[in-house]
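Researcher: Before we compare anything, I want clean individual predictions. No alignment, no superposition, just each chain on its own. First chain goes here; please echo the sequence and then give the structure tokens.
Model: Echoing the first chain and its structure:
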Amino acid sequence: MISRRNFGKAAIGAAPIAHAILSGPAWAQTPPPAGAPAGFGRGGPPPKPNSNFGGVQIGVITYSFRQGVAATDLVSILTRLGINSVEIMSNHAEALAGAPAPAGGFGGGGRGRGQMTPEQQAAAQAAQAAARAEMEKFRSTVSMDTYKGIRKQFDDAGIDLRLLCYNLNGNVKDEEIDYSFRMAQALGVKGITSSSTVTIAKRVAPIADQYKMLWGGHGHDAINDPEQFATLESYARIMSFSKNIGVNLDIGHFTAAGYDPISFIKEHHDRITNLHIKDRFRNPAGGGRGANVRWGEGQTAIKDVLLLLKKEKYGFPANIEYEYQGTDSVIEVAKCLEYCRDILIA
């Protein structure tokens, strides 16, 4: 495990990278050298990103940029970071496709619905119902060619749009499950990841078989909830539904739940859509949740996992999921990327 001191070094090393990211790419700011071909340098094409280190594909889930980053800026940010593999959140993909914005909050200055007046609660519920209706209309009418166009944006930048993260809640309709697969198919991704439930996974199975696409249940750490993907038994159960139901293994949550990601990866590597990389402490025996911390400060075997992927040449990506409390999300993802690179190119 890389020490806190070494993560600090990575942070210092990432500072100039982050500055370059936020101020704009060097290829767009410097004049071309003498004798360079036309279009080189300022105003020319950016270099293709590459975050495959030692044969291990490091990517990022766009959830990492949930604060302060517009969907329209994702390609530019990934290019500047040098990341060439991405797991796109459905809300980001739909925003790029022209989906209506979600309903805003009501009253209380963000203090919570419990402190709203009855009138404010009614207004909030009406707005949410209207937003749901607008989204259902969008999903029923959007052309799948729109998503093919989004794929081209990433392809043109040299970024593999590898996975779609489409979360499915308890009230999801079969029509929306089917839509998620049609959307994934149009985006040209290799699979879908999803925070969902065991019951929904069983409903997803025949649709995954129909589309012949791997659907990975995203694991968490609620081991006392039989509907959550959290225990070894719950993972085994959803994988029994279909050969096209797999696991999006979040090694931070898996560690918090008290399990060893190394042994699970070795046993089930052929059913893993991808990893989510984060650092957490194990959940305390007496209850509560293990803290989500800067990489190298927790108990998650990030280094051992990455070296296992390098040794065994597994084909799935290890995606950065920035969740600890840091500074700017782009800066923190740059630090995490550097952390992975230092392990894999040592």
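Researcher: Okay. Second chain, same rules.
Model: Second chain and its structure:
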Amino acid sequence: MNLKQTIAIKPVAVALMALMAATRFDHMGTAVALPDASLAVFFLAGLWLGGRYLFALLLMEAAAVDYWAISQMGVSDYCVSPAYAFLIPTYAAMWLAGQYCRSWQNLSLDHVARQLIALVTATSVAFLISNSSFYWLSANIQQPSWAQYVETFSHYFLSYCVATLLYAVLILAVVHIFRWIRAENSQHSQI
């Protein structure tokens, strides 16, 4: 691969970066803000694009958006703690799961099921990493205990996973529909 191929701007990468920038302001979502799409973005970027430079660029974007939101928009810095560094392995879990799914790109039930299993597994691992690191390393938790940890884990796990799964499944569905339409049009034009 030459330098020109390495730095080429890819529309899919730009779209994923725009999605992350637009949604990164609230993890769970509110009436005026969509839930954070970062986990889905890392999964889909690993699935479709790969490359360590893009992974690093997405990490830098996430940190830059967080910095801007906190310093310029008044978003709380509650989640910024020594655990913030654990977002790297959190996002790496999603990225690697996406790369793992690269060989399952068609619409067969087997491929869709494998991607869904990998996505659910990676999202669960990502939650375990980010939630555990925040709970045990953040000064925001005054007296951590295993009972309280299990309670907070179970409280946030479902919403964390649902947002990621919705983004990824919807985006994958739209992409597969467009691929199917393009294939159908290609077949009809050859007749």
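Researcher: What stands out in the second chain?
Model: The chain has one domain: 3-190. Additionally, Helices lie at 3-6, 11-23, 38-48, 52-72, 87-100, 109-137, 146-190.
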